Amino acid sequence: MNILKKITVLSAVIWTLSSCHNEPKKQIETVPPNVIIILTDDQGWGDLSSTGNSNIATPNIDGIAANGLKFNNFFVQPVCSPTRAELLTGIYHTRLGVYSTSEGGERMKLGVETIADVFQNSGYATAAYGKWHNGMQPPYHPNNRGFQDFYGFCSGHWGNYFSPTLEHNGELVKGNGFLADDLVTRAIDFIKANKETPFFLYLPLNTPHSPMQVPDSFYKKFANTSLKLKTSEDEDELFTKAALAMVENIDYNVGRLLDQLKKENKLENTIVVFLSDNGPNSVRYNGGLRGIKGSTDEGGVKTVCYMQWPNSISKKKTVNTIASGIDILPTLATLANIPYNTKALDGRDLSKSILKTEEIENRVLFNYWNGGTSVRTQDFRLDHENRLYNMHTDIEQQNDISDSHQQLKDSLINLKEAWFTLANLKEAKQQKVHFTLGFPEAKYTQLPARDANATGQIKRSNKWPNDSFYTNWVSEKDSIFWPVKVLEDGKFKVVLYYTCKAANIGTTLKLIAENNELENAVTESFDPPLVGMEQDKHPRKESYVKDFKALPMGQLNLEKGEYNLTLKSPKIVGKQGIDFRLLQFIKVEENNY
Predict the structure, then answer these.
(1) DSSP code of 178?
(2) Do 128 and 194 fall within a single domain?
(3) Claim to verify: residue 524 and residue 568 sit in the same structural domain
(4) 404 and 495 in one domain?
(5) Which of 3, 74, 328, 360 is the most buried (most CB within 10 A)?
(6) Quick one: 395 and 538 in the same domain?
(7) Domain end marker among 391, 414, 431
(8) CATH code of the domain in which 280 resides
(9) Considering 382, 403, 431, which residue would you say is the last residue of a domain?
(10) Is 353 exposed, middle or buried (0-12, 13-18, 19+ CB in 10 A)?
(11) Is residue 57 located within the same domain as residue 189?
(12) What distance in Å separates the CA atoms of residue 155 and residue 133, rounded to the nearest whole number?
């Protein structure tokens, strides 16, 4: 019996052991709605007033559920990139080659249709504003995965939330104010620009992910007061306060977005979905669920999922069937009555449960991260150590009931093993990562420090690579390099972003690409201070950041193939050369030669 068939058969057995099934009639709304998905970053299930958190007030987010529905049992993955990949494709991240949150392991494999592709192919305007985290270099970039407009950043976290350097469709730009506010302003402008066109808007906000930065106007409520609800001696109250202030800012921005829909007379026929990408990023109130971000236990993977569509969804409706991020694509496509490839997906269409009578799904869900897999049925969870819990009576996962449910436990273990074999994660991790250059349809390609390796004494500004830069370039023997895959021959303008003290002016830099190279000298000093600490409400673990200056390196010929792109410093003036942030490649069109 092949693995897929085995999983199907085992799922049916488990269904008879743990659940029941109803069969309602199908009812689909045929008027194409607008669609907005709001995805927050590291917000826990318990970070809302609607889930019982008396520390916080979130009337706008709670109102989505009150004016529509809430899923009582909605699950994502334990960390960022896997959840985002599943939401975008309807396929488990393990089958997409997503096994990490950096170093190329966050990229979704190519040739997979995304939810943006589905909606764009049906005439929708598409946009994504915020944190992407599923690949930076085209064709992994959001502009090449179905999104016509992108504004934000592509890495896993950002080092400054106040007017930071961002990108707009690949071009580096300066942000405007607090980042979450800025992203929602972009979203509002997108809504205004599409008065006559149905639109699909993906809004992956960067908060409340660390660093814990938020405007003082939101933090002042929490600054000098004690938490009303503190659930553990391990809780860092300062961190919790910052996280909750960030969530209240999100709620403010959700209100701005809904108000704009109302002004444009689009509220009634817009599907708005709100959810988070994993469990909370610290120990804090989470409804008694075991686990936080990074854990495959209930608390690490359960999120609120609220949805409103005034034209078609009844108010204050609840859906109890287990559901997942992999269900977003098929469900929204069906609600919008647009075609998609049903055979390729792991997710299920839940439109029947949303529009009419709830259909309890015959299924199990898998959560995986860092070598651990758990399995969720409608009523039970088998954890990563094969302990079994009744999730109706034991949400804290304290009482292992394996002895009294041995047949169910054995079936779930078999199913877990079959699923893990199908995932083929070992092979994905062993593949050599190459960062792509020269994609025919892309004008801009970035190669940041995050994706590079360094030799000798050069070191990262922080062990967490996403917003890091390289420093301590003290030896002319040392270098920075990227394993690249150049997709086709081409000519590119190359801009290097650096800092350099006045004493080190005259340092030279050489970029080597197989048989071609560029060399230039630093003629201007640029030595700005590190920033971030003045805005942090809690000490960060990530790198502090700074501004970097653009140095045009010249025009480089890139030849198709796989090789290392290497940056050297043949001459270092003084004790240290440059600090390095990124390379920007700009395609030179044929008619500009």
Answers:
(1) B
(2) yes
(3) yes
(4) no
(5) 328
(6) no
(7) 431
(8) 3.40.720.10
(9) 431
(10) buried
(11) yes
(12) 5
Q: What is the 3-state secondary structure (H, E, C) of 459-477?
A: EECCCCCCCCCEECCCCCC
Q: Give, for all 593 residues of the chain, the pLDDT tens digit.
A: 444 445 554 554 444 444 433 333 333 445 699 999 999 999 999 999 999 999 999 999 999 999 999 999 999 999 999 999 999 999 999 999 999 888 889 999 999 999 999 999 999 999 999 999 999 999 999 999 999 999 999 999 999 999 999 999 999 999 999 999 999 999 999 999 999 999 999 999 999 999 999 999 999 999 989 998 888 888 999 999 999 999 999 999 999 999 999 999 999 999 999 999 999 999 999 999 999 999 999 999 999 999 999 999 999 999 999 999 999 999 999 999 999 988 889 999 999 999 998 888 789 999 999 989 999 999 999 999 999 999 999 999 999 999 999 999 999 999 999 998 887 666 666 677 899 999 999 999 999 999 999 999 999 999 999 999 999 999 999 999 999 999 999 999 999 999 999 999 999 999 999 989 999 999 999 999 999 999 999 999 999 999 999 999 999 999 999 999 999 999 999 999 999 999 999 999 865 44
Domain count across the chain: 3
Proportion of the chain in helix, strand, coil states, percent, rounded to 5:
25, 25, 50
SS3 242: helix
Whether residues 409 and 527 share a domain: the answer is no
Sign for the CA dihedral angle at 453, 456, 462, 463 comes to positive
User: Do both 329 and 231 map to the same domain?
Assistant: yes
Residue 494 sits in the same domain as residue 548: yes
Collapsing DSSP states into helix, strand and coil, what is residue 491?
Answer: strand
Q: What is the pairing mode between strands 305-308 and 69-71?
A: antiparallel
